Amino acid sequence: MRLTCPLCGPRDRREFYYYGAADYLNRPAGGDPAEWDAYLHLRDNPAGQTRDLWYHETGCAQWLLVTRDTVTHSISDVALVAAGGASGGGIAAKVKPEGSA
Amino acid sequence: MADLIAKSPLDGASITIGALTLAEFDAGRITSVAPLQGQEAALAKAFAPLGLAFPAPNRVSTGKDARLVWTSRGQAFLFGAAPAGLEAHAALTDQSDGWATLRLTGAGAAAALMRLVPLDLEAMAVEEAARAPLGHMQSILIRVEDGFEILVFRSMARTLWHEVETAMKSLAARAQI
Fold first, then answer.
1. Nearest residue, CB atoms, A60 vs list B119, B131, B136
2. Do A60 and B72 lie within an 8 Å CB cutoff?
3. Best CA proximity match to B102, nearest among B15, B3, B4
4. Is residue B65 part of a domain?
5. Which strand (E) or helix (H) includes residue B21?
6. Cα A89 from chain centroid?
7. Domain boundary residue among B94, B121, B148?
8. What GO MF annotations does this protein's record show (chain A) (predicted)?
9. Which among B58, B136, B138 has CB closest to A8?
10. In the listed set B49, B65, B94, which residue is the last one of a domain according to the structure?
11. Could you read off the pLDDT of A5-44 as tens digits, one per residue?
């Protein structure tokens, strides 16, 4: 597996550290416990496109936003988080509606 | 103030195995240069007398007595020259004592180093640089005319020496089969 770092070019998977879902970029601004619960614990587990954070540990030391497909294992996009790679959507969309189990 | 004697990480060690030579060299003063926001143009002006320009990713800018090597987003290492006149435009850190600097030269330098670095070093041209893992160490590689300059953190100098020497030996041994 290789990731194409926007700065360093195509690099081996060994150079990167996997952090987790890109949801970590959408930190809640307020103190709403439900939003924080969603931010910390609720994650999608899609069969298909997913976005997650990787750290180019032994390269340029930048955080990368990687778009990949969990079914085909293809990597469609690698962007710098620092260059505004963060997505819209927001964690609020995942907050459980009132009364749901 | 007492005039202390600076000691290099490997005491100027050098070894030749087959066609390859590994030797410590003095890279001169090493300064990390990180341009401040909005100061890029002013910094370019300050670098002009040295014959340097802030390098693009994976590039080296070579001036009269100094080199500027890309090391990360918004960061380059200045080798050789004192960073006079840059204070107002960039965050500067003296890193001269923080790095072990070695040069691997001779025919097959890329082949030896590619045993340790997962990059196509044959394709690397002079004036190119890379941040890359060497074994499990973070390194800076700079392609020079007859080989490579290798920088790792000073604390890892002897590990680097051991790794590269082993690669050189096994390459020389294979050549004799």
1. B131
2. yes
3. B15
4. yes
5. strand B20-24
6. 12
7. B94
8. sarcosine oxidase activity
9. B58
10. B94
11. 999 999 999 999 999 999 999 999 999 999 999 999 999 9
